[in-house]
Specification:
Blueprint lengths: L13 H8 L2 H12 L14 E5 L3 E5 L5 E3 L13 H13 L7
Antiparallel strand pairs: 1-2, 2-3
Helix pairs in contact: 1-3
Bound molecules: zinc ion (ZN).
């Protein structure tokens, strides 16, 4: 049976995790980088030009069609009322624990 490299990679300590994803801005930046690794693109018209505003969460507005979206639109985090850092911490605890914390 082939060895899964992901399964045997070194874990991230809680201290390192909080250093990398401890703030809302860090979590949003990580989500943005995962969604748009080559820069923001409009979900409707695929334009690259945008303006940025804040409405509790960072919003990108397309300068081509006027469509507004945040980094959580179209993800599992869409419609959440909780901060992203809470979800990131929950995901960290679920994936790093070996003591059935998911139960
Ligand atoms: Zn657009």
């Amino acid at each position: 049976m082939a060895m899964n490299k992901i399964q045997f990679q070194a874990g991230l300590s809680l201290h390192e995790f909080l250093h990398q994803y401890g703030t809302e801005a860090q979590c949003e930046a990580a989500l943005f980088a995962a969604r748009w690794p080559h820069g923001w693109r409009c979900l409707r018209c695929d334009a690259e030009r945008y303006s940025c505003t804040h409405n509790g969460r960072k919003l990108w507005e397309c300068l081509g069609c006027g469509y507004q979206c945040s980094s959580i639109v179209g993800t599992v985090f869409e419609n959440t009322k909780l901060p992203l850092r809470t979800w990131f911490l929950a995901i960290y605890l679920m994936t790093q624990s070996k003591n059935a914390v998911s139960a």
